[in-house]
């Protein structure tokens, strides 16, 4: 998955959608993402690390094993895939993507979606080629969906209230405390304590006071 035009993230995305493998290594044992990072093509690294094939999500739209119903209704696959593959991970952006789609912005729909995200997270951690970055991303989006559910159930202003809470800054310096606490909580709840990425995040965040 080496772009003929180095640094072109659109071509990188097209190649991924055409089935290019992200874990194939070159003659010096480096993946495309590692090579892109090495030469400073960070936009391409972001595209590769955020790519999730639609077919992997569509798997959950079909009944598996003894299940009579699929874990994810077909109508939710497209909207969920859009959020999964977004490269803007700001919590407000994710809530806005939920809010703008009436199919997603319902308690039952979000419950189905976050459960599927948890399954994908588990699969990312337990597969042979472990993908901690994708696992953490799925877990993080799942946590935001669960918080969306809380606001949809408990607040009159619903998702608008969630967005306001995320953007509200404290009086003395405008720092968004609620947003910081949400992100820290999602990291704390990551279920795979042995993950290198989790340990790096904890080491970076633990000494920093809100």
- Helix/strand order, N-terminal first: HHHHHHHHHHH
Figure out the total of helices.
Answer: 11
Could you estimate the helical fraction of the residues in percent? 55-70%
Q: Uncertain segments of ≥5 residues (pLDDT<50)?
A: none
Broad shape: globular
Q: Provide the gyration radius in Å.
A: 18 Å
**Biggest β-sheet, characterized?**
none
Quickly count the domains. 2
Q: Which quaternary structure do these chains form?
A: single chain
Query: How far from one another are the termini?
Result: 41 Å
Relative strand content: under 5%
Quickly give the structural class: mainly alpha
Structure summary, number of beta strands: 0
Which whole number gives the mean pLDDT?
A: 90
InterPro entries: Ankyrin-MYND_dom_contain_2, Ankyrin_rpt-contain_sf
Organism: Ceuthmochares aereus
Protein name: ANKY2 protein
Can you describe this structure?
This is ANKY2 protein. InterPro entries: Ankyrin-MYND_dom_contain_2, Ankyrin_rpt-contain_sf. The structure is a single chain. Helix 6 packs antiparallel against helix 9. This protein folds into 2 domains: 44 residues, no CATH class; 153 residues, no CATH class. It contains 11 helices and no strands. The chain is globular. The protein is 60% helix and 0% strand. The mean pLDDT is 90. With 210 residues, the chain is an all-alpha fold.
């Amino acid at each position: 998955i080496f772009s003929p035009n180095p640094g072109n993230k659109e071509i990188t995305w097209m190649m991924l959608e055409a089935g290019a493998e992200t874990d194939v290594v070159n003659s010096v044992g480096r993946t495309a993402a590692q090579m892109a990072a090495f030469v400073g093509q960070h936009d391409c690294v972001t595209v590769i690390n955020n790519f999730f094939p639609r077919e992997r999500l569509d798997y959950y739209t079909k009944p598996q094993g003894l299940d009579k119903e699929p874990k994810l209704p077909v109508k939710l696959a497209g909207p969920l895939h859009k959020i999964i593959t977004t490269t803007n991970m700001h919590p407000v952006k994710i809530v806005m993507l939920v809010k703008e789609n009436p199919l997603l912005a319902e308690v039952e729909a979000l419950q189905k979606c976050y459960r599927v995200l948890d399954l994908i997270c588990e699969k990312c951690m337990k597969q042979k080629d472990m993908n901690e970055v994708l696992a953490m991303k799925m877990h993080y989006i799942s946590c935001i969906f669960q918080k969306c559910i809380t606001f949809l159930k408990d607040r009159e202003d619903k998702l608008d209230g969630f967005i306001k809470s995320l953007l509200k800054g404290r009086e003395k310096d405008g720092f968004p405390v609620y947003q910081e606490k949400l992100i820290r909580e999602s990291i704390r709840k990551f279920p795979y304590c042995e993950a290198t990425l989790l340990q790096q995040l904890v080491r970076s965040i633990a000494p920093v006071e809100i």
